[in-house]
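PROTOCOL LOG
Step 1. Enter all chains and additional molecules of the complex.
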Amino acid sequence: MQITLHLNGTSHPLDVDPRTTLLDALRHHLGLTGTKKGCDHGQCGACTVLMDGRRINACLTLACMAEGHDITTIEGLGTPGNLSPLQQQFLDHDGFQCGYCTPGQICSATGMLEEIAAGWPSHVSDSLDGPYDLTHAEIAERMSGNLCRCAAYTNIVAAIRQAAQGTREDAA
Amino acid sequence: MREFTFHRAASVADLPAGATIIAGGTNLLDLMKLEVIAPEALVDITRLPLDRVEPEGEGLRIGALVRNSDLAAHPTVRRDYPVLSRALLAGASGQLRNMATTGGNLMQRTRCPYFYDRRMACNKRDPGAGCAAIGGVTRNHAILGASDHCIATYPGDMAVALRALDAVVEIDGPSPRRVPLADFHLLPGDTPHVETVLQPGEIITAVILPAPVGGQQRYRKVRDRASYAFALVSVAAVVGMDGGRISHAALAFGGVAHKPWRDPEVESLLLGREPSDALFHEAAEILLRPAQAHGENAFKIPLLRRALMATLRDATGMETTA
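Step 2. Run joint prediction.
Step 3. Record the structure below.
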């Protein structure tokens, strides 16, 4: 079927089988291999992208259902010469070992920081009334949909915390 | 994944006969990839205007397409139905909550591993084939309301809170109707493949919450990991106190049965009584009287007793949460 994906600010017409997931459309049809396939069942978070600014699992989304939505992948967040704050902090804090989960971690953290800014509570929040501090417990809970088999979690948490503080300082 | 035709619904009236509804897709696509289910036709309802939370009388009408994350963060839900926010936040991951919908969450299938494994006998997947879970690995299986044909559990959290809140499911179709959530999910009996009262051609359009009852609201979930895992057991509690006595008690239980479980006898025991461990122990005894273990899931019986007692101590102010 003919669809058009709005991806990283550009429209891409595609001819896809209805079974094609957004993840496979990105990697196989559009050659954007930054988004990774781990489990392909929504359990590992390696395929996390942003749809209308919200983090989702691209492996559990049909490409044809993503039509009309704005999709942002890791390629759309920053470039080697113009890294996003989270990308920079993952480098500065060595927030990876093999790097396979990193695009998903960064897309997920990008969406998560927006959720925090919007005052969304989490399972570990003491109160349902925000705002919420980015404690270790809050970051661990809010990022639990992203696994890292190298267990670089300590540095991932540090990178996210630093990026969030930078964002707040910019806002102030 | 097997081939299917894809149709985007333009209205609730525009649902092709025989097509399987897809919204968030978080459970459906997972099952389709494994070919546990293989719909010939999918109808995408995500463009329908069913994504609003709005007042209805003194209560709340939650559209079927309201995403789990939006519902958990909704100011009215946080203020008036906190047990619902807490249950939603205890489920899945941030990414999945951003996709999963209110209606789809009610329709999610069991996570029984024998249902997921097509090499295993399963009366849900293949009616009459038998149940490989009985006598098998039963860590996640039911202790209440199971049958000789199926010991699977309903896996969700949201519906457990909705059960404690006396929610009602709004259904559109040839004969639009409203069904109490209590009657929406079915026990397995000898037809475990029939999980809800929803008929072909029908669609969930909303979930209705009655006027808020206040009180202390808790959702206590016990699981194998601290985050992103299904409940072994869970307790949704709405408890009111008046003059040191329990004046309201609504208690629903997840992870233990084919549907969110509730026992009116447990609640009537508590009404008008002063909180005490002896009382709560008696409540647990009533709750667990019909409990039946299936091998290794026997641990769920003492676990549910302790989870209920801890939740009641907390909600009645006997003890603050650690």
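Step 4. Note key features.
The longest helix of chain B spans residues 300-315.
The two ends of chain B are 46 Å apart (CA to CA).
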